Amino acid sequence: MKKYLLALFVILAVSGSIIKMEAQNLAAGRDAKISAIVNGISSGNLEKYVRNMVGFKTRHTLSTRNDKEKGIGAACNYVKSEFEKNIPQAGGRLSVRLDTLILEPDGRRVTRKTVLTNVIAVLKGTDPEDKRVFIVGGHLDSRNGEANDSVGTAPGANDDASGVSAVIELVRVMSPQKFPCTIVFVAFSGEEQGLNGSTFLAKKAREENWNVVAMLNNDMIGNSFSNETLLKDNLHVRVFSESIPASETDAAKVLRQSTNAENDSPSRQLARYIKEVGEKYVDQIEVKLIYRNDRFLRGGDHTPFNRQGFTAVRFCEMNENYDYQHQNVRDENGMKFGDLPEFVDFEYARKIASINAAVLSSLALAPQQPVNTGIVVSGLGNSTTLKWKSPAGKSPQGYFILMRETFQPMWEKKFFTEKNEITLPYSKDNYFFAVQSVDEEGHLSLPSWPAPIR
Do 302 and 435 have their domain in common? Predict the structure, then answer.
């Protein structure tokens, strides 16, 4: 009898915990499936991946490719093997490959002809009619104080084993899940030599007409302590996004100028989406939107995708530490220099990787964006009428009309409708608007910016 009562008590306690957890998810507006993916990200795993990558001594793009224990070749094989561990749990939907090209000497950072390799895992969607592609990546190569030193120690724990570790962990937690569209996970090479690996993949995506909806670049996501200013911050992450698209066409320029959309590029819309969704699913972190393509006069692997006309952003720690970044490993006047794993905050990296998981899952499960979105300008008035057409594929339950005052960085109000047209009692002269699709489970598409309808 006592055993029966004890078992009953355990069942009730567990059931109560599950009910309480579900209630908390609902209260926070969280989808239980996405929460499970996000909660699966492990800081311990991130640390293991980083330390294993650091163990290859250097991952310089021009380092040895034939040694099994050191150099870029061994590092590529390691990431490939980590990706491949997830093939069984993906039910035939995950494929892994090494994507290579030959780099010719450029007289700068490519001093000799060399092979460059991107490590790629592709999680195919379950809907053959859904052609959307989402890409997430980080760069595998590392460097020390001398950009062309291909033999010296270059641990690259934070720059950018932290980003690649996030990608490996994303493959692990997302492979068992079923998404209608395709997700591509990439460990780029050649970033330190001039964004070579990402340029190669971005051009291939353009030439092969991939429908890349969003690209997330994770580059240095593990440092939470800055030199000089001595700031300690693992509660904020920067997301960089371009304003005027690098590949802007003449027609897009006319639309931007006529609607004053300088702060509403597709990449800016993605950045706002990341802030909204990331902060909803991941506790104790705030997304800071940095309104520039990258750090001052610097770049990252999202930039080639921007140049090819794709929507892409960069995740980066809030404060960098230049005692650890691009430094030879050494002790100097009692201080340690070098990009070593002991300087990586793995719990901070976990939170940023978790934001990636939430955003990718939310976008992949959502309907596609509304199409032919327009704002009626045929007459004067103090109300605003918007019209749009339903997207292909999964039918939305309805649409959110987003609204904000022109000086505000984030959307302030949402209006729901199941129709393809709405008139709001707010003047288009005083507010910006956009339209996004939503399904019955609350998964949101990226916003669609309206063009004038005359």
Answer: no
Q: Which two tokens stand for residue 219?
A: 């580059």
Query: Is the separation of the CB atoms in 273 and 446 below 8 Å?
Result: yes
pLDDT confidence bin for 21, thresholds 50/70/90: very low
Reduced DSSP (H G I as helix, E B as strand, rest coil) percent helix, strand, coil of the chain, to 5:
30, 25, 45
**Amino acid, single-letter form, for residue 220:** M
Helices and strands: H and E segment counts in the chain: 10, 17
C-alpha distances out from residue 402 to 214, 376, 386, 434, 450, Å: 20, 16, 11, 5, 11
Confidence of residue 386 (pLDDT cuts 50, 70, 90): very high
Q: 205-225 burial by CB neighbour count: b if 16+ within 10 A, else e?
A: bbeeebebbbbbbbbbbbbbb
pLDDT for residue 25 is more than 50? no
Average pLDDT for residues 382-405, to the nearest whole number?
97
Do residues 205 and 122 make contact, with C-beta atoms less than 8 angstroms apart?
no
Crossing angle for the helix pair 32-39 and 2-27, to the nearest 10 degrees: 100
Q: Determine the residue type at 169.
A: E
Q: Does one domain contain both 264 and 319?
A: yes
**CATH number, residue 444:** 2.60.40.10
Does residue 425 sit in helix, strand or coil? Answer: coil
Secondary structure of 208-252 in HEC code, one letter for each residue? CCCEEEEEEEECCCCCCECCCCCCECCCEEEEEECCCCCCCCHHH
Q: Give helix 162-174 / helix 72-84 axis angle, nearest 10°.
A: 20
Residues 99 and 174 occupy one common structural domain: yes
Tokens 């355990």 sit on residue: 10
Torsion of CA 37, 40, 46, 52, to 10 degrees: -100
Q: Which of 382, 385, 402 is nearest to 454 (CA)?
A: 385
Q: Are residue 119 and residue 227 in the same domain, yes or no? A: yes
pLDDT tens digits, 143-177: 999 999 999 999 999 999 999 999 999 999 999 99
Strand pairing report for 114-123 and 182-188: antiparallel
- Residues of the domain holding 409: 371-453
